[in-house]
Design goal:
By secondary structure, the chain is mostly helical. It has one domain. It is built from 3 helices and no strands. α1 packs antiparallel against α2 and α2 packs antiparallel against α3. The protein is elongated. The two termini are 24 Å apart.
């Protein structure tokens, strides 16, 4: 939300800083899920793989990406 407000107020430096912070948090979550997948059983790995794929997709997403993930709950 802060990113959207900063964009509306034309505070682009703040927007870039907040976006970078959010990407950092998301990268941490992605690495955490990866470690969980490695340590989990086979059945549990399947359940954790979908959130990892979504988080990984968001981390690698750029402005010009063709298929963006617009909502976490949307189907892939």
């Amino acid at each position: 939300m802060i990113v959207n407000r900063s964009t509306k107020a034309r505070q682009m430096t703040r927007k870039r800083r907040m976006t970078k912070r959010l990407k950092t948090y998301l990268g941490r979550i992605t690495r955490y899920i990866e470690r969980e997948i490695e340590d989990a059983s086979q059945a549990s790995q399947v359940a954790r793989r979908e959130p990892w794929q979504r988080a990984n997709r968001l981390v690698n997403e750029t402005r010009k990406s063709k298929y963006k993930l617009l909502a976490w709950h949307a189907r892939l």
